Amino acid sequence: MPGRRGFTLIEVMLAAGLAAIIASAALAPLVFTVRSLREAQMRYGAAHSAPAAAEKIYHDARGALSNPSFPVFKVIRKSGLSRERDDRLLVWGRMQGPSGQVTGVAVYRIAGGKTAGTQKQGLYRWLLSDSDSSAPPGGAAYRKGGGSPVDIDTDLLDEADATLILHDATGLRFTVCGKGKKWQEEYEGALPAALRTELTVNGKEYSYTGRFPNAAEK
């Protein structure tokens, strides 16, 4: 109709720019909320999965068998440039395997990450048994020759043969309450009186202590 005109290109561009600014301002709190929720979920997951991992370790430790001929429980204190807390735990006893209980060595250590190809970083569990084909491969393949089932070179263990127990775990520290009720950084012997497990997950520290009332009997 005469006397009416459309919007100019500049007017359209100004309107589009104004709409974009308003939309950005409206979505910014939502993006922040989603990010905060995701971080809270990660913290919640770590806070609940870390105790489950510690309980798994404690359960295996309780399965240690008594044998006067060799040590059945071993803690190795390790630290390095890439990983400050890099302890290892080895327990020989009756352990839960893929197809039931087996007699073997359960090994716990942090593994994975950039130096391990596609394996995710976290807390891993190996079950090494010479008598059960369902448990990958037997402890004899990694044994140093000292005669003890827990005398194993844990650096040779392959993450592909292990079970990932706790995602995103970057640190592991064990302390043992041994003879004389003294806490020790390294230990090799029978089932101790207590085991303290410290886990680092997503930059947070979690500490758990499990006691073994029947340690003297083992």
Based on the model shown, name its key terms.
218 residues; alpha+beta; 6-stranded antiparallel sheet; 4-stranded antiparallel sheet; 1 helix; elongated
Q: How would you portray this structure in words?
A:
The protein has 218 residues and is an alpha+beta fold. It has one domain. Helix content is 25%, strand content 31%. The chain is built from one helix and ten strands. It has a six-stranded antiparallel sheet with strand order 5-4-3-2-1-8, covered by helices on one side. A four-stranded antiparallel sheet has the order 7-6-9-10, with helices on one face. Strand 9 and strand 10 form a beta hairpin. It is elongated. The relative contact order is 0.17. The model is unreliable at 39-47 and 132-137 (pLDDT under 50).
> In angstroms, what separates the terminal alpha carbons?
100 Å
The percentage of residues in β strands lies in: 25-35%
Q: What is the mean predicted local confidence, pLDDT?
A: 79
SS-based class: alpha+beta
Total discrete domains: 1
Helix content: 10-25%
Order of adjacent strands in the largest pleated sheet = 5-4-3-2-1-8
**How does the major sheet shape up?**
6 strands, antiparallel
Write down the Rg: 27 Å
What order do the helices and strands follow? HEEEEEEEEEE
Regions with little confidence, pLDDT below 50 for 5+ residues: 39-47, 132-137
Shape: elongated
Number of helices: 1
Number of strands: 10
Short summary of the structure?
With 218 residues, the chain is of the alpha+beta class. It has one helix and ten strands, in the order H-E-E-E-E-E-E-E-E-E-E.
